Amino acid sequence: MEQINNIEVVPCTSSNYMKPFRVHYSQNGTRKSWDFMRTHDSVSILIFNTSSHCFILVKQFRPAVYMCEWEKHQPAPAGEEAGGAGDAADAAGEEKASGAGDVADAEKRSRLPPPSAGVTYELCAGLVDKPALSLEEIARQEVLEECGYDVPVAKLRRITSYRSGVGVTGARQTMFYVEVSDEDCVGEGGGEPQEGELIEVVKVPLLEAMNFAYDENIPKTMGVIFSFLWFHSNMAPKYKISTNV
Ligand SMILES: O=c1ccn([C@@H]2O[C@H](COP(=O)(O)OP(=O)(O)O[C@H]3O[C@H](CO)[C@@H](O)[C@H](O)[C@H]3O)[C@@H](O)[C@H]2O)c(=O)[nH]1
Ligand SMILES: [Mg+2]
């Protein structure tokens, strides 16, 4: 189980991962503006293990998801803006001096959502941040690093690409499909430790995939849902699966 503490929220003034901009433009003679974020494009990979007839997904703590939940845990605003960054810092802060402060700290800490509130099920995925590599090569690396399967680039089949966020980023994600077997498994996966990645590899049996996809109690990305549906309409006949989608 994740242990999340010492949360501190600060304004993001520069980042290797995103850059905010505002564009002013005229559309059919009307002056408009839009705020957007420049980010990396990405790849995602639906992995199907043909030995165990399971999909291989990753599960990881996503700070952005957690902070959305955190905001919901804050008390209703009483004269002042709820959920200021300072509150988040205090809520999970280090032990301070004993006494009345302790009571206040404990109360704030009790308003923290559990770490599981920030954990999501996702396709194996990664940023396109290595200009020398093709999308397929980046996808191959992610499958190895995050899930521990060593597969040749030629086995990656492009499913499609789409805009992963149209309101804020406009970034493109390209989705691949790859079949692996237990023999392709060369490690545990889990991500790159030097990048601080902590990824859990999880298997979803094919027969449970549709219930998994539509279970709203299981936090997941749209990519998981879409790719499971794609599998059912494109690959199910090969695996003689009857589909009631
Ligand atoms: O603010 C940040 C952002 C990223 N990282 C690092 O960068 C890595 C990025 O990992 P990578 O596997 O390349 O990308 P993902 O975080 O998996 O993101 C992909 O997978 C997501 C879930 O499918 C999609 O939403 C994204 O668009 C897609 O890029 C992270 O693990 C961190 O090490 C940070 O340290 N701080
Ligand atoms: Mg990733």
From TrEMBL:
<dbReference type="InterPro" id="IPR015797">
    <property type="entry name" value="NUDIX_hydrolase-like_dom_sf"/>
</dbReference>
<keyword id="KW-0378">Hydrolase</keyword>
<dbReference type="GO" id="GO:0005737">
    <property type="term" value="C:cytoplasm"/>
</dbReference>
<dbReference type="GO" id="GO:0006753">
    <property type="term" value="P:nucleoside phosphate metabolic process"/>
</dbReference>
<feature type="domain" description="Nudix hydrolase">
    <location>
        <begin position="38"/>
        <end position="226"/>
    </location>
</feature>
<protein>
    <recommendedName>
        <fullName>Uridine diphosphate glucose pyrophosphatase NUDT14</fullName>
        <ecNumber>3.6.1.45</ecNumber>
    </recommendedName>
</protein>
<comment type="function">
    <text>Hydrolyzes UDP-glucose to glucose 1-phosphate and UMP and ADP-ribose to ribose 5-phosphate and AMP. The physiological substrate is probably UDP-glucose. Poor activity on other substrates such as ADP-glucose, CDP-glucose, GDP-glucose and GDP-mannose.</text>
</comment>
<dbReference type="InterPro" id="IPR004385">
    <property type="entry name" value="NDP_pyrophosphatase"/>
</dbReference>
<keyword id="KW-0460">Magnesium</keyword>
<dbReference type="InterPro" id="IPR000086">
    <property type="entry name" value="NUDIX_hydrolase_dom"/>
</dbReference>
<dbReference type="GO" id="GO:0046872">
    <property type="term" value="F:metal ion binding"/>
</dbReference>
<dbReference type="GO" id="GO:0008768">
    <property type="term" value="F:UDP-sugar diphosphatase activity"/>
</dbReference>
<keyword id="KW-0963">Cytoplasm</keyword>
<feature type="region of interest" description="Disordered">
    <location>
        <begin position="77"/>
        <end position="114"/>
    </location>
</feature>
<comment type="similarity">
    <text>Belongs to the Nudix hydrolase family.</text>
</comment>
<dbReference type="GO" id="GO:0019693">
    <property type="term" value="P:ribose phosphate metabolic process"/>
</dbReference>
<comment type="subunit">
    <text>Homodimer.</text>
</comment>
